[in-house]
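Q: Protein A?
A:
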Amino acid sequence: MNIAAKNLSIATEAAAILERLGVDKGAYTGGDIRTFSPVTGEQTGGLKTVTSAEAAAKIDQADDAFRAWRLVPAPKRGELVRLFGEELRAAKSDLGRLVSIEAGKIPSEGLGPKCRK
């Protein structure tokens, strides 16, 4: 069921979608950088800033992950990428709606050019 049809706020709808997608609520609430809907102007979330040291640690973690990933045999990487694509396709409707909310796009534009009908 489309949450928007229930006349929920954009922020409530976005939070419900993120919850369905398994995103931890702490990742988009309570931060010091506020996000707003370009359509309604209402606050949709809050992102946390990090210190230079925290950013450097995250960059180091990403570098470590890359170095580990490149050691995975190509067929296994390909299979993992294929499975990731399946997960994205399964969540296409929710992800498209999030794009619509974030960017102020109409729903068909949020889904992307190949998904419009």
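Q: Protein B?
A:
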Amino acid sequence: MIDTIEADQPLSLDDYVDKSMLIVDDDKPFLQRLGRAMTTRGYDVRTVDTVGAAIADIASNPPAFAIIDMRLEDGSGLDVIRSLSDRRPEARSVMLTGYGNIATAVAAVKNGAFDYLSKPADADQVHAVLMASPLSGKVDAPDSPMSAERVRWEHIMRVYEMCDRNVSHAAEKLNMHRRTLQRILSKRAPR
């Protein structure tokens, strides 16, 4: 694939022999738009809209690149990330979600994702992340600090992920009622 990587040097798609990409998202219009956009950037794109189809696709032909939605109708994108990481550990995958939070970002990276982006993310952002040097270590500072509500929500999500997304167990650890936790989890992250 690539022999040497310099820390500050972004990569180019031309540096890769295998340009195969799997995009997994249950939002069909978004899936089609992103698929077309990544194809115009030079990737060999395949698209699926379920966890089961993604895992089957990975089992038959693991891609070099992947863009995976976190929440899918039939399960979690983390299962797809795990499957890809098991079959092709060097693959570069990006987790996308409309429910961006630190806990799921950490879970995605621990399961093998290269990086994590919150929706709405455009094709240029995704391509830039996929081509970023893994050695650069540069992290952009946030535009604005988190609110107190957001910090609380991040903590709740971290505990929820640590409990393997088990609502009853997480509610017990957080010392709150299960229904309260379910209501918090059903809402979007505060700003």
